[in-house]
Each structure stands twice: as structure tokens, then as C-alpha cells.
Write a structure and sequence with these properties.
mainly alpha; globular
């Protein structure tokens, strides 16, 4: 549920979904902190630095603010 809400929050703020993964949400067994946690835990890939638009977003204060707003929106969606 947390991952789905995070994706929805990021998309709602105007950030594009990944285009190079088969699915926006990837379930993995090789991440220790996530696998031993007793609370909801996810890893969010916010930008792909090989993508020119993402790299430009990372370089600008406005782009970084947009990413922060997307993360915030996802957290709020999960908690409400």
C-alpha cells in the first residue's frame, strides 16, 4: 500500500513514471533493511540520471522541490 501511494503522490505532482522498468513497483528480496523491517518500508528511485529530463530536474532547485513535493504527497496519501 505504501509503494502504491508513493507512486500516486509522485505522479499527482507531475513527475513521470519510469519508462525503463516493466512495472513501476518492483518487489525485491535482496534489500536487507526492507526485508527485516517491522514497519512499512520502501526505496524510492526519484530520478534516473541517465535520463536528460531527470538530470535537468536534479540540477534545478525547482526540480528538486517538485521531487520533494511528490514524496510528501505520497506519504500524506499513505497516512490518510
Amino acid at each position: 500500500r505504501l509503494a502504491k501511494r508513493m507512486v500516486a503522490g509522485m505522479v499527482a505532482t507531475g513527475l513521470p513514471r519510469s519508462t525503463y522498468l516493466s512495472s513501476t513497483i518492483q518487489l525485491r528480496k535482496d534489500t536487507g533493511a526492507i526485508n527485516v523491517s517491522d514497519v512499512p518500508t520502501i526505496t524510492v528511485e526519484t530520478l534516473n540520471m541517465r535520463n536528460r529530463a531527470d538530470a535537468a530536474r536534479a540540477k534545478s532547485a525547482a526540480g528538486r522541490q517538485l521531487v520533494a513535493q511528490g514524496l510528501y504527497a505520497g506519504i500524506v496519501r499513505y497516512l490518510t
